[in-house]
Amino acid sequence: MQVVTGAMGTLLPKLANLLTEEYKLHKNLRGEVLFLKAELESMEAALLKISEAPIDQPPDPQVKLWARDVRDLSYDIEDSVDKFMVRVDTGVREKSRSRFRGFIDRGVRLLTRAKVRHNIGTDIKEIKSQIKEVSERRDRYKVDGVATKPIGPTIDRLRLSAMYKKVTELVAIDETSDELVKRIMGEDDESKQKLKIVSIVGVGGLGKTTLANVVYERIITMFDCSAFVSISLNPDMERIFKNMLYQLDMRKYFDIHQKTWDEARLINELREFLQNKRYFIVVDDIWDKSTWKMIKCSLPENEHGSGIITTTRILDVGKQAGGVYQLKPLSMLDSVKLFYLRIFGYEDKCPTELAQLSENILKKCGGLPLAIITIASMLACKIGKENLHKYWSKVYQSLGSGLEDSLDIKNMRKILSISYHDLPPHLKTCLLYLSLYPEDSEINTHDLIWKWVGEGFVHRQCGRSFYEVGEEYFDELINKSLIQPAYISTGNKKEMSCRVHDMVLDLITSLSNEECFLTTLCGQQHITLNCKVRRLSVQITNEDDAKQMSTLSLSHTRSLFLFSGFNLVNIPALSSFPVLRVLDLSSCLLVDNHHLKDICKYLFHLRYLDLSWTSITEIPRQIENLQLLQVLHLRGTGIREFPSTFVQLGQLVCLTIDSTIQLPNGFGNLKHLEELEANIEIISEPNIHDLGMLTELTRLHIGFREWHKSYEEPLHQCLSNLIGLEYLRIDGCYGSLDSACDSLSQGPHQQVCSIDMWERTIHAVPNWMAGLSTLSKLEIVVERLGERDLQMLGRLPSLGHLSLGVERPTMGRDERLIIANGYLFQCLTFLYFWSHTIDVEFAQGAMPKLQNLSLFFDVEKAMDQFGHVDIGLENLAAVGHVEIIFSLSTHTRGEVVEAAIQRQICMNRNSPTLNFR
């Protein structure tokens, strides 16, 4: 069962916090809170136990009802606790203007807190009665451990049925199987003798098992013995090893399943049997590294030319096994062939009126063979009947919405859902959250992680920032092939954005609907009115949506997202969302100052607020009311300054603003700030002092209107305090910064991984950079490039991305700096080199891992200086793409340069692609 545990993960720590001295609960109320905490811990344990049941054994409907009640109860309790905490923590904030006014304020504060404590006492008594009712219902109907029989075919039967498709039905299988056969069989005499391992990696439904089976059938006769074993999510290793032995020699091990051998005995038997044989083993559907380690122990690494193929959805497992082969989705052409073949029996036959619909459906399938075959099988059942176009249109509209309820679609979701079932509760919640985005969205990783933080899904760990923990969650979903990278940074190789495959979106949307996790308005779905709206995603609104929204109770809504295509007038007043935590109004031009005033007046529970690219021009003083606010995005607005009350937002961890916005004095009070995405202009020593107080900061962009000698010591102290700094950008006055920046290469500052100093030319690579062992990305412009600079840059052990500009020629006429293997650059994969005369040359062995090279130079100056552009491009052994950007005044010289560059590229054994601009 795919149980979502509601707010349990964040609620239990809050109940523990309520018991601290800070909230001064009286004795009876403390006892009630202890009761709630104990009951909810037991309920959470029961929910987790239910969610860990085998996916093929769905629980009794009574269990599902009980789980729903517990989940809803956890949300309601957390809402009550949050209201109490906000009221007690907020109190009266106005500073007293006189002793008499201070006396009155203190009296009001005491009365307010007494009333709030009385209210929470009443709420807890009511909650306690609800918990008792839920618990008694559980006992009354004896829901524990009640499981129904599997409905329909089991997961293993559904997954393995793909193995037995006729080869003639498998489109585009020949090319991929040929490549795998070459890998397994070896290409030369030496490699033919070694053990070869190929790990096929990809999302569920991509055809990994099918491909492995095709290769297996093609080459098993070339080996002494062979076996094909499936592992699955919860493997029985004894049964797997026995199955392997039986397939390897059916005569010798005909009674192996009757033997009582343990795992150690079975592993030894396998090793002894295979030691002197040329064997071929397929290990299908591995889910974790420990399982692979155990299997690998049973397969000896002999010199008889044996081969192993593994299949897995998890990239890390494939990397550990070795020989990763990432299986790609089918092309549109091959998708069409498979689709038509399945429906009409021919690869190129389709009625004209269905052609466009076919293309639309296949776009949603995204090259996933399982999805194509599933949907084609469903559509094939209607061939020969009337209104085909209407039926196909209905199927197309339902795909990705989680609403299609046919048996074929349910079976497909079953296969895809194994990956979801394998996730821990916090990652299940993070994945379901992605159903809030419209189809085909390119989702910004940075924004997504901060939304997870705002919702409370990310739990801070000792010594790690919120974002670091959230990034780990994101990487795990990528690793398990549940989300796909869309854009990867060349510097740190991190995924800057991602996409969700439409069929995975269909799965998580279906689960989200089932769990009432998120409600979507997109012009085609009807909301289930008996569900509380916990999260609302408004994607496309029409008149019907507006009417439907007006009937909803939004008092429990925690997240509100307004995407393009809606009218702000259509949504209820912001006061209708009293417990809202996450609000994304970015790019909604109709949002203006009065909306922000309402936000500050009513939405005290906000943790995440995005008002980027709106018409807001002023931040009200009441911004201080948002005491729980953690993330604030204000790019592209008309705001120019913050009120002094802004510095009271003590929980803020991420602030994104334009460089034109001036931070108020005292912004050093924002002590939890981890990310400050803005150009902070330094105009006084107090500014530097405030920055130095932000000791949690990981990203910093500062600029200097002008440099004063008095800044040097405060800046040195400031950078010394920022022990978590990972990204630094400095604009202006570089020549005076050497001593101030020395602290970056001393002590704890070993985690700085990105520095941007591109805006102004400096004399040379500064000495302090030599100590930055974790620096992976550097953008810098120097006046002249010398051997010392190359030595320093080349010795940076983690440098993967370098943008290097050179203002003036370094050497004399006809002389170039030779970049040889003595300069190391052992990790560099990306180089952008800007110079008027391109005064470097690559020797044999230079930059051994460089994959992408961009060169920018002036043709006239380069030819006048050197007379040629032979710079050794043929010597870059790993380069895969070269981009040449040049300026010229005479076309003739341009042709000469292009020919010379082309000649060097042709001589490069790696055959890189070349692009001239």
From TrEMBL:
GO molecular function, one term: ADP binding
Superkingdom assignment: Eukaryota
Keyword Repeat: yes
Gene3D superfamilies assigned to the protein according to its UniProt record, in alphabetical order: 1.20.5.4130, Helical domain of apoptotic protease-activating factors (1.10.8.430), P-loop containing nucleotide triphosphate hydrolases (3.40.50.300), Ribonuclease Inhibitor (3.80.10.10), Winged helix-like DNA-binding domain superfamily/Winged helix DNA-binding domain (1.10.10.10)
Any single GO BP term: plant-type hypersensitive response
InterPro entries in the record: Apaf_helical, Disease_R_plants, LRR_dom_sf, LRR_R13L4/SHOC2-like, NB-ARC, P-loop_NTPase, RX-like_CC, Rx_N
Ranges for domain NB-ARC: 181-335
Disease resistance R13L4/SHOC-2-like LRR domain: residues covered: 556-914
Entry keyword annotation includes Magnesium: no
Location of the Disease resistance protein winged helix domain: 436-508
Domain Disease resistance N-terminal: 7-100
Record keywords: Coiled coil, Leucine-rich repeat, Nucleotide-binding, Plant defense, Repeat
Similarity annotation: Belongs to the disease resistance NB-LRR family.
Name of the protein this chain belongs to: Uncharacterized protein
Organism the protein comes from: Oryza nivara
UniProt lineage: Eukaryota, Viridiplantae, Streptophyta, Embryophyta, Tracheophyta
